[in-house]
């Protein structure tokens, strides 16, 4: 390990925010101890490590916790420089600011619109939620064209911050599409994003970090059953 200190990752296997940290650690070739957390019965380690939000992911580096997934990605990128993999955030100050802007857009705009599709049980509400999500995806399609400049990823030739931020949702998107009969990243409507998704999922570090599709499908169905019964999601989405 380049920085020499022990790494631990506190997470929940289904969380896209945890998945993105796993991807970043894999891209950097870092070894770490993964500690699964029960979000209904939070461990003392999690509560001590993230006393403000009490959520995952938390990266513990040399005994010191770093919280919130985008902050963790930036931390990983800055601490482990020169590990043989391209940095997640490249370019000049403007390029870096642009990457941070679109990563925040994924969390603030895309996630909220997609969550409305995922946690809707009525057909007409789901159709309305899907309709509302389409302009958000259109914006990301345009962002991909501008950021990639004709290359494979938002980050250009290599996976970057925005790729990891958005790509961590891809298995969840596939799961929701399968259950609801939707196609959020329709290749005819969003050819750039559809092609990008295939390339991103083919990256070794991404394949290693992604959850099993069948297991994720069962988790979603179970959570939806809890949602119907209690009007509360079966687990807490975390950042």
From TrEMBL:
Q: What is this protein called?
A: glutathione transferase
What's in the GO CC field? Answer: cytoplasm
InterPro entries registered for this protein in UniProt: Glutathione-S-Trfase_C-like, Glutathione-S-Trfase_C_sf, Glutathione_S-Trfase, Glutathione_S-Trfase_N, GST_C, GST_C_Tau, Omega/Tau-like, Thioredoxin-like_sf
Family label: Belongs to the GST superfamily. Tau family.
Annotated ranges, domain GST N-terminal: 5-84
Q: In its keyword annotation, does this UniProt entry include Cell division?
A: no
Q: Give the enzyme's EC designation.
A: 2.5.1.18
GO biological processes: glutathione metabolic process
Give the organism, scientific name: Eleusine coracana subsp. coracana
Q: Which reaction does it catalyse?
A: RX + glutathione = an S-substituted glutathione + a halide anion + H(+)
Key words, A-Z:
Transferase
- A Pfam family it matches: GST_C
Tell me which domain of life the UniProt entry assigns to the organism this sequence originates from: Eukaryota
The residue ranges of the GST C-terminal domain are 92-224
Gene Ontology MF: a single term: glutathione transferase activity
